[in-house]
Give the backbone structure.
Amino acid sequence: MNTRHFISLLDLSRDELHQLIARAIYLKNHRDPDYQPLKGQVLAMIFEKSSTRTRISFEAGMAHFGGSALFLSPRDTQLGRGEPIEDSARVISRMVDCIMLRTHSHETVTKFAEHSRVPVINGLTDEQHPCQLLADMQTYFELRGDIKGKTVTWIGDGNNMCHSYIHAATVLDFDLHIASPQGYQPDKAIVAAAGPRVKLFDTALAAAKNADLCVTDVWASMGQEQEQKQRERDFKNYQVNKAIMNEAHDDALFMHCLPAHRGEEVSAEVIDGPQSVVFQEAENRLHAQKALLEFLLCKH
Ligand code: CP
Ligand code: NVA
């Protein structure tokens, strides 16, 4: 049997993603403590980088479903002392039922998955953050219905989140308008593979025109802290503020994966304002990932 992994949003078909979003909304609205489909199952979580939402949502989700989660960091496992990824994957996957990794290099997760007997979930790499997109899309569907044919604007760094938005645009069939400073645009191959659904704009204002959803992320991601000052200069015209939201539709939503820096990539007025749904989006990490764990681990 081929083990299903969730390394990229592209690992799901359109139908599967729609079903997963619908299931996440159902699980959110019908919490049943007696429903324990993962009783006795164990999720190992390997974090090379910090996390609040990803760690807590996976850990709580496994507990709700009757299973348990192990938090592992390279600092206190042999991974940090150079044990090969391949060997670690072979060993860990003989002991647990699912493995989530948050790593710097995307290749660490793909290589791990190649040697794992159990499903592997990408909990964020420098290239992609597909779990966040499950929650973002669940939030859009809850509040506005199907995102097909809508316009989503990404303002800021062409980073892991931006790449997963590009994937979402192709799977769910929405237009994605991206405005990033020169030198910070998304990966050319990922943009090219997405086709006409994805367009790059020269200014944030132009990209935001008629948007149904505006999204941004930090200017300096984890691992780029030393570039913070340079990035503050390079991204100064790429803040989502009232002027940007005025270009979008009146009922446009604002999302941010969090953590956020008010006064940098988003003004306090927008993130704390009526169009912002960032805390519903954060909560949905729990529900969307429960639907994902059920999809990957329960017999269909
Ligand atoms: N959005 C997100 O992944 O948050 P954490 O870094 O806190 O997990
Ligand atoms: N782009 C951010 C996302 C954090 C959830 C980072 O990689 O740090």
